[in-house]
Design a protein that fits this description.
Layout: E1 2-8, H1 15-26, E2 32-38, H2 45-51, E3 55-60, E4 74-75, H3 77-82, E5 87-91, E6 94-98, H4 101-109, E7 119-123, H5 127-138, E8 142-147, E9 154-156, H6 162-167, E10 170-173, E11 199-202, H7 211-218, E12 222-224, H8 227-241
Parallel strand pairs: 1-2, 1-3, 4-6, 7-8, 7-10, 8-9, 10-11, 11-12
Antiparallel strand pairs: 3-5, 5-6
Length: 243
């Protein structure tokens, strides 16, 4: 039996497990299984690798997209550039890291871009934000991070003035705020300053309409959630695991 899985914490509701179990069923794949590796401390993942002797690949979610790097023997140029990994191929005991978030994000994000979408705010600074930063840089879209804490080259939420909001018509939520079951949460941006010129993209996919997106939609903004991104990167993961 070939084993695949997802590494993260917590993993109470996993899109990936349901997706791959259904994929195996539909495609008649009977020699593969998908497991949840709910690991609070990345150091404990060593035990998973020791015991899961048939593991051929796994994806990574919050909070281990950066901490997994210490386990890799090799990685793609993208992973090296971003310092974040969401897909690992295991072959002959060697762990090779990839980042398929970049493909999923770009292919789902880019079709809705308009000519005036030249500047963006990235909410959050974790592993997912690294993939978003990579794609914005690739497409020549100027960006600034937004965080609860001050830092060089980034805004705090309190610094999102009318001028800042008007100058950055693209806003991308890379935080877990609003994810089920805490659906009442949302990033504390000044939604009253969002307009029909804005494009709000949420990497959260459950629920489909987060408070972040709903509040933006109420202001006339274009909105999109992270569901398509997940579908695209999941298929890319499968291609990598079967090379």
């Amino acid at each position: 039996m070939r084993t695949f899985g997802i590494l993260g914490y917590p993993l109470t509701h996993s899109f990936s497990q349901g997706y791959f179990q259904e994929k195996f069923r539909k495609e008649g794949i009977t020699d593969a299984g998908f497991k949840l590796f709910s690991v609070p401390d990345i150091a404990d993942f060593a035990e998973v690798l020791r015991t899961e002797t048939t593991l051929e690949g796994f994806c990574i979610t919050i909070p281990h997209k950066k901490t997994i790097l210490s386990f890799l023997q090799d990685s793609s140029e993208g992973v090296q550039a971003m310092g974040a990994c969401n897909c690992v191929r295991v072959k002959d005991g060697k762990l090779t890291g990839y980042n398929t978030d970049v493909i999923g994000f770009e292919e789902s994000f880019a079709p809705i871009l308009q000519p005036h979408h030249t500047k963006a705010l990235i909410l959050g600074t974790g592993g997912a934000a690294a993939a978003v930063e990579y794609i914005l840089g690739k497409r020549g879209i100027d960006y600034r991070f937004v965080s609860r804490t001050a830092g060089e080259g980034r805004f705090t939420y309190e610094q999102l003035t009318p001028e800042v909001m008007a100058a950055h018509p693209v806003i991308i939520n890379c935080t877990p705020l609003g994810t089920y079951p805490k659906v009442e949460e949302y990033p504390p941006i000044p939604y009253e300053l969002v307009t029909s010129a804005h494009y709000l993209y949420d990497l959260v996919y459950n629920p489909p309409l987060t408070q972040f997106l709903e509040r933006g939609q109420a202001q006339g903004a274009t909105i999109k959630n992270g569901h398509d991104m997940l579908l695209i990167q999941a298929e890319e993961n499968w291609k990598i695991w079967n090379r």
